[in-house]
Amino acid sequence: MPDCFPGVERGSHRARQPNIMQRMDATIQPIVYIVDDDASVRRALRRLIITTGMNAETFASAHEFLESLYREDGACLLVDIQMPGITGLALQQQLLERGSRIPVIFITAYDTPESRREADDLGAYGYYRKPVDGQVLLQAIEDALSKAQNLKAG
Question: Is this model's pTM higher than 0.85 or not?
Answer without folding.
Answer: no
